[in-house]
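ok, trying the design again with the full structure, not the truncated one.
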């Protein structure tokens, strides 16, 4: 693993996020271990992990990418709703429409849905800005090693966790035109199930969800592309809205 981690670190340093030498040659377990080690190195260099993302949770996204189980990545940066992102700073960007949850206490593996709900301090309407830094669909393991497409998360105003997220509808607009919608039950049946899954999965790697961390729980809809000039807004009924633009 040490040799793998070093090889992926060196590749990243030279701007190769999906090292071609490892196409088709990496297990999912190895990919996660590389991801966590690279994030640790980035944190040592001054970045800060503030939470986690759960991806590939909605049937629409699983069908889009041909991978039928959730995945996780690390969140290192958030910006407030209304942010304008420079197109030149993004690599083949896109976005997903999610509920972000902030934990008020630790959540160990094996937690129930009720325990997950009680651990949530507040939630945010959110957009995850992703980058396609390589052939994601063909090389899922390499994408996980490269932190599962994560770039930055856009957060709206926080609210208390409502009694039922499954019926919340997200309506997505790009440049003033509605392009899609989805409901909370698309996210593993309930976005809280993302917390349950993630707590259990992280335990396999000696990690645990901690109080104060945020978790992006997965998209209500398919993933959408982003281009310079785009203005995006997603409205989550009863929760709030979130906006971002690309200049």
């Amino acid at each position: 693993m040490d040799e793998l981690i070093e090889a992926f670190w060196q590749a990243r340093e030279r701007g190769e996020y999906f090292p071609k030498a490892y196409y088709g040659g990496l297990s999912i377990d190895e990919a996660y271990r590389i991801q966590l080690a690279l994030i640790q190195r980035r944190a040592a260099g001054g970045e800060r992990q503030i939470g986690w993302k759960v991806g590939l949770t909605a049937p629409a996204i699983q069908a889009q990418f041909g991978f039928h189980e959730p995945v996780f990545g690390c969140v290192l940066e958030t910006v407030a709703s209304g942010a304008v992102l420079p197109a030149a700073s993004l690599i083949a960007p896109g976005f997903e429409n999610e509920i972000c949850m902030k934990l008020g206490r630790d959540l160990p593996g094996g937690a129930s849905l009720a325990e997950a709900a009680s651990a949530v301090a507040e939630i945010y309407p959110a957009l995850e800005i992703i980058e396609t830094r390589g052939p994601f669909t063909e090389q899922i393991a390499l994408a996980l090693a490269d932190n599962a497409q994560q770039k930055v998360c856009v957060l709206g105003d926080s609210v208390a966790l409502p009694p039922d997220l499954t019926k919340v509808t997200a309506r997505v607009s790009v440049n003033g035109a509605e392009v899609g919608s989805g409901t909370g039950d698309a996210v593993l049946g309930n976005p809280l199930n993302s917390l349950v899954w993630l707590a259990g999965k992280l335990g396999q790697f000696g990690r645990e969800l901690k109080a104060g961390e945020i978790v992006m729980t997965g998209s209500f809809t398919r993933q959408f592309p982003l281009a310079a000039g785009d203005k995006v807004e997603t409205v989550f009924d009863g929760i709030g809205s979130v906006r971002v633009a690309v200049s």
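Keeping the full-length input from now on. The helical segments are 2-13, 28-44, 59-65, 113-119, 140-145, 192-203.
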